[in-house]
């Protein structure tokens, strides 16, 4: 997961999952990796800071996240 803004600092202080690992750190963004089977709870946790987080891989999780966001958008049209 690619995180921007203050999100990397937040995740360092309060990891989303015990398997969380910061794999890259750059000026303005960081990459975090997880070893887990994504659950509804995991998706709920990453929806709150959505504009500061991008699912990079795996593709099926990226697509599921996009589908959730599309469904949310459709409810507000």
Characterization of this structure:
It contains 3 helices and 4 strands; from the N terminus they run E-H-E-E-H-E-H. With 77 residues, it is an alpha+beta fold. It has a 4-stranded antiparallel beta sheet, with helices on one face. Strand 2 (21-26) and strand 3 (29-33) form a beta hairpin. The longest helix has 16 residues, at 59-74. The model has no long low-confidence stretch (mean pLDDT 91).
What features would you highlight for this structure?
globular, 77 residues, four-stranded antiparallel β-sheet, alpha+beta
Short structural description:
The protein has 77 residues and is of the alpha+beta class.
List the strand order in the largest sheet: 2-3-1-4
Order of helix and strand elements from N to C terminus: EHEEHEH
Q: Could you state the oligomeric state of the chains shown? A: single chain
How many beta-strand segments? 4
SS class? alpha+beta
Detail the poorly predicted runs. Answer: none
- Helix share of residues? 40-55%
Radius of gyration: 13 Å
Instruction: For the record, give the distance between the C-alpha atoms at the N and C termini, rounded to a whole number.
Output: 28 Å
Strand content: 15-25%
Number of DSSP helical runs: 3
Averaging pLDDT over every residue, what do you get? 91
Shape: globular
Biggest sheet layout: 4 strands, antiparallel
């Amino acid at each position: 997961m690619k995180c921007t803004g203050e999100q990397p600092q937040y995740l360092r202080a309060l990891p989303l999952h015990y398997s969380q690992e910061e794999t890259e750190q750059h000026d303005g963004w960081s990459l975090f990796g997880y070893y887990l089977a994504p659950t509804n709870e995991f998706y709920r946790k990453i929806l709150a800071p959505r504009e500061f987080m991008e699912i990079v891989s795996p593709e099926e999780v990226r697509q599921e996240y996009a589908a959730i966001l599309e469904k949310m958008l459709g409810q507000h049209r």
